[in-house]
C-alpha cells in the first residue's frame, strides 16, 4: 500500500531513498572512524577515549539512524493496520476514519521530527569546532582541562546542516501532505 497522496509518495521516495542513502553512505564516510582520529593533549588512549565520550555521548550516525526508525513507526503502524483490514488506497481519502487515522500518523511524524530536531541541536549544535576543551578532572590528572583535536570538523559541520535541512524538508512535506488530504476531502482538489 503506497501513500494515498502525491506528496506522501514523494515523501516516501525522499525519506526512503535520498535521506537513507545520504546517511548510510556519506555519514559513514564523514563520521565512520571519528573516534580513532580524535586526539587530545596528552595523546594517551585513556584521555582520548574519556574526552571522546564527553564530546560525543551518542554518535551522530546512531542518532540519525534512530531518528529514521522512530519517524517511520507511525506510518508503519498505519500501513500495517491498512494491510490487516484490506483497506484500498482510494478508501483512505474517501472514508473519514481512515483519513483521520492517516492524518494522525502524519502529525506523529511531524512531532517526532521536531523532537529529533531539538535533540540534535542539544547534542550536536550547528557547528563542529576544530578544538574541543575536555574536562579530565575525573581522571585525576594534573590539569583539569585538555585540548582535543576534532578531525574533519568542517565536513562534519556541513553534514550537520544537511541533516537539519533533511528534517525541515520532511516536516514541510508532512505539512503539505496534510494540506493535500484536507483539500481533497473538501473537494478543492480532485481525488486521484
Short description:
The chain is mostly helical. Helices cover 70% and strands 6% of the residues. Helix 1 (6-31) packs antiparallel against helix 7 (153-186), helix 4 packs antiparallel against helix 6 (96-124) and helix 6 (96-124) runs antiparallel to helix 7.
Structural topology:
Blueprint: H1 6-31, H2 34-37, E1 39-40, H3 45-55, H4 60-84, H5 89-94, H6 96-124, E2 131-135, E3 145-149, H7 153-186
Antiparallel strand pairs: 1-3, 2-3
Helix pairs in contact: 1-4, 1-7, 4-6, 6-7
Key attributes of the depicted protein:
mainly alpha, 7 helices, CXE1 protein, de novo design (two linked rop proteins), transmembrane helix, 3 strands, gap junction channel activity, 192 residues, membrane, three-stranded antiparallel sheet, 70% helix, Connexin, single chain
Mean pLDDT: 85
CATH class type:
Mainly Alpha
Strand segment tally? 3
CATH architecture descriptor: Up-down Bundle
Remind me, CATH topology?
Answer: de novo design (two linked rop proteins)
What is the fourth-level CATH superfamily? Gap junction channel protein cysteine-rich domain
What fraction strand?
5-15%
Going across the biggest sheet, name each strand in turn. 1-3-2
Can you summarize the main beta sheet? 3 strands, antiparallel
- Count up the helices: 7
Q: Tell me, what's the shape?
A: elongated
Q: Secondary-structure element order, as H and E?
A: HHEHHHHEEH
The poorly predicted ranges are none
Number of domain units: 1
End-to-end separation in angstroms reads 15 Å
Which structural class should the secondary elements be placed in?
mainly alpha
Helix content: over 70%
> Which value, in Å, is the CA radius of gyration?
22 Å
Subcellular location: Cell membrane
Keywords: Cell membrane, Membrane, Transmembrane, Transmembrane helix
Protein name: CXE1 protein
Domain Connexin cysteine-rich: 112-181
Amino acid at each position: 500500500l503506497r501513500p494515498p497522496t502525491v506528496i506522501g509518495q514523494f515523501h516516501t521516495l525522499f525519506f526512503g531513498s535520498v535521506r537513507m542513502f545520504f546517511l548510510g553512505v556519506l555519514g559513514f564516510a564523514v563520521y565512520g572512524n571519528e573516534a580513532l582520529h580524535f586526539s587530545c593533549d596528552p595523546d594517551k588512549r585513556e584521555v582520548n577515549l574519556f574526552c571522546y565520550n564527553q564530546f560525543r555521548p551518542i554518535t551522530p550516525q546512531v542518532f540519525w539512524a534512530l531518528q529514521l526508525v522512530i519517524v517511520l513507526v507511525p506510518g508503519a503502524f498505519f500501513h500495517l493496520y491498512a494491510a490487516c483490514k484490506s483497506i484500498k488506497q482510494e478508501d483512505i481519502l474517501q472514508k473519514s476514519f481512515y483519513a483521520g487515522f492517516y492524518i494522525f500518523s502524519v502529525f506523529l511524524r511531524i512531532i517526532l521530527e521536531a523532537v529529533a530536531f531539538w535533540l540534535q541541536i542539544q547534542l550536536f549544535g550547528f557547528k563542529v569546532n576544530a578544538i574541543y576543551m575536555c574536562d579530565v578532572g575525573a581522571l585525576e590528572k594534573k590539569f583539569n582541562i585538555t585540548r582535543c583535536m576534532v578531525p574533519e570538523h568542517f565536513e562534519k559541520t556541513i553534514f550537520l546542516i544537511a541533516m537539519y535541512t533533511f528534517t525541515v524538508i520532511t516536516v514541510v512535506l508532512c505539512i503539505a501532505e496534510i494540506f493535500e488530504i484536507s483539500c481533497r476531502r473538501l473537494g478543492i482538489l480532485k481525488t486521484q
